[in-house]
Automatic annotation (TrEMBL):
Pfam families listed in its UniProt record: NAD_binding_7 (PF13241), Sirohm_synth_M (PF14824)
Name of the protein in question: precorrin-2 dehydrogenase
Organism: Candidatus Eisenbergiella stercorigallinarum
Biological pathway: Porphyrin-containing compound metabolism; siroheme biosynthesis; sirohydrochlorin from precorrin-2: step 1/1
Entry EC number(s): 1.3.1.76
Keyword hit for Oxidoreductase: yes
GO BP annotations listed: siroheme biosynthetic process
Length: 219
């Protein structure tokens, strides 16, 4: 069965991850880039997670360490939970408890204990492409991620972020939806023509020209 990819704002959301090893570290690294407030619970925690918690890595989010086995109270208020321990009974316990409480849960390498899957991500700034095989083949998802990541042009993320800021100006200035869509499309095509390397101010100047044309068309 295919799974529908919801895109959600995770900034400031509480996530709980059980486990302190390599698998937990990889998932934490991905999630922290999206501004999540993570709690990592494990009696033993690897050096890489220690570095994340100490702020030695570039993270948008933060991680707090709890050096013991998890208890039920640890999952209260969690927006999602990831069970990534090397003990099957703990992962099973976490999955069952989350299902009971209605908390989305992902159990590493255990499809039946997941209510959501962790996608393979190609990521550049606000551009995020999520790839899932419905838990059938993580290797295929990883391969696809690599293919997509190589397809993303250099500078795309920065340029899309600039387009996002300019979009607000277009929404305020142009009341007609079709006209707005046409202007925003022209802006993107301009960026593509410049291979997403437009000089500072070029995009703003081109938008000014497009808005001038729109204003004259309304006269």
């Amino acid at each position: 069965m295919a799974y529908f990819p919801f895109y959600m704002d995770l900034s400031g959301k509480k996530g709980v991850i059980l486990g302190g090893g390599r698998v937990a570290s990889g998932k934490l690294k991905t999630l922290l880039a999206f501004g999540t407030e993570m709690v990592c619970i494990s009696p033993v925690i690897c050096e890489e997670i220690e570095r994340m918690a100490a702020g030695e890595t570039k993270n948008a989010g933060a991680v707090r360490l709890v050096r013991r086995e998890a208890v039920e109270a640890d999952l209260e208020g969690a927006f999602f939970v990831i069970a990534a321990t090397d003990r099957r009974e703990i992962n099973d316990w976490a999955s069952a408890l989350c299902r009971k409480k209605g908390i989305p849960v992902n159990a590493a390498d255990d499809r039946k204990n997941c209510t959501f899957y962790f996608p393979a991500l190609a990521h550049d700034g606000p551009v995020t492409v999520g790839i899932s095989t419905g838990g059938c083949s993580p290797a295929a998802a990883a391969w696809l991620r690599g293919q997509v990541q190589r397809m993303l042009p250099e500078g795309l993320g920065d340029m899309v972020e600039r387009l996002g800021r300019l979009r607000e100006a277009v929404l305020e200035r142009v009341p007609d939806q079709k006209q707005r869509a046409a202007i925003l499309t022209e802006l993107f095509l301009f960026c593509e023509k410049k291979q997403f390397q437009a000089e500072e101010g070029d995009l703003e100047e081109y938008l000014s020209q497009l808005l001038g044309k729109a204003d004259r068309g309304q006269e």
